[in-house]
Amino acid sequence: MLPRRIPSLRRLYTTATQPPPTAPKPVINLKQIRAAPEYHAQNCVDRNYAAVSAYPTRIVGLYDEWAGLQRALRGERERLNAISADLRRAVKEEKEALICEAQALRGKISGVEERERCLEKEMKELAIALPNTTHSEAPVGSEPRMLGYINEACAPKEDADKVVKGHIQIGAELKLLDFADAGAVSGWGWYYLLNEAVLLEQALVNYSLSLAMKNGWHLVAPPSIIYSHMASACGFRPRDQNGEQQIYTLNDGKHALAGTAEIPLAAMHANKTFAMEDLPMKVVGVGRAYRAEAGSRGVDSKGLYRVHEFTKVELFAWVPPPAEESHDASAAATEGEPASAPAKQHPTADDVFIEMLELQKTFLTSLGLYARILEMPTTDLGASASRKIDIEAYMPSRAKKDPWGEVSSLSNCTDYQSRRLNTKLKLEGGSGKKTVFPYTLNGTACAVPRVMIAILENGWCEERQGVVVPEVLRPFMGGIDFIGRKKESFPMCS
């Protein structure tokens, strides 16, 4: 008997685009927006989201209309309640008139309530489209602020005679990279890793995972296909504000390929509630990242720097919100309730942010890479990040124009993602019924292709015609300490 035909991805999913009933219901802080519409409007402009800068004022107008309808119906609702009470003691002759009046009131109330629901829906949709608030450390504008350097002793010295080779040339000469065949198979932005490059990729993954694990981070291997609504909740939309495609959407419209492990990691606790003792929860995930990179072709897109698919190790954490944000919610105890014991001091978002940055610095320092640390400006912040730090490594082949290439980033997303994913935190003390939304942080542990660029170009030894492997990676590569020219060519078909 022949096996049943395996369905294609297109047939595997339905054509419906509505999210399933299990999709998280966003809980947006409309009160915060209404309290400071001018700030939120300017925040949109500062962050390159001018197209939605009118939304905060619109939300205020919609709320005023909604509140007016609420006030206008107060009399009708009170009268309807009174009729319900009158019906219980009315005589038969009076009931008919009361029932008719009640029906008329219900019809009027129902029509107004439908309008109220429309207003609530529009306010929510407008609020969801707004970017996160901006951290005070983020420079306003388009210029980043320098925070410091990594491995300054490794800074290149001026040498006019030094031979500089780019990773594309090195990859070809040492038979490590194949862009031509990948272009024929998959198109621009795809590649084959060959020989020691395969080991180097796995070494970078395993070393970054082991480093994070030794520092208390829990390992996760997340899925690469996610619901589109989960990606949107994390701040990744199929198209950016300029209409450029960001991530690959599957034919059903309901699913997408994850642009980063951040998305499935954030979503793994959607619709769940943490206990205070659970936090901070710190995970490190490894997976394949898929980027459409539409409109991104240029000098930065050559070779491995900007590709459609790559391996990435990602740090992700949930932490309690600042004490001032949970103060009102935690005051659940009544006056007669005995005082609870002092709350346990948990690491703050800033504490975990610094911890993640130190891990990134340790990783790049141990690889011997010269890099710089930047506080990114408002125009470079995505929808979800309140604050973002980038680390850029020195890449010799780019020295004539701009020698720095981003190899990692670190973001504090405050409660932007947890509110959209309905991830909550149950507070300690009081009645124990109050919840808030935890802060989420994410950071790159290792973006393999870009780190590989830096290792190949900085590790190139012209005298030996090969690349010196960083010492910390050698145990993960079977002891290989140098990648040289091959005596035999990579097996190919003629």
Instruction: Please give the CATH architecture of the largest domain.
Output: 2-Layer Sandwich
In total, the number of domains comes to: 2
Q: What share of the residues does DSSP label as strand, in percent?
A: 15-25%
Q: What name goes with the CATH superfamily of the largest domain? A: Bira Bifunctional Protein, Domain 2
User: What spatial order of strands do you see in the largest sheet?
Assistant: 1-10-11-12-15-9-8-4
Query: How many β-strands, per DSSP?
Result: 18
Instruction: Count the DSSP helices.
Output: 15
Integer average pLDDT: 87
Instruction: From the 3D structure, determine the CATH topology of the largest domain.
Output: BirA Bifunctional Protein, domain 2
Largest sheet: 8 strands, mixed
**If you compute it from the alpha carbons, what radius of gyration comes out, rounded to the nearest whole angstrom?**
28 Å
Calculate the terminal CA-CA distance, rounded to whole Å.
Answer: 38 Å
- Share of helix, binned: 25-40%
Going by helix content, strand content and strand pairing, the class is: alpha+beta
From the spread of the alpha carbons, the general shape counts as: elongated
Q: Which regions are unreliable across 5 or more consecutive residues at pLDDT < 50?
A: 1-16, 330-342
- Report the CATH C-level class of the largest domain: Alpha Beta
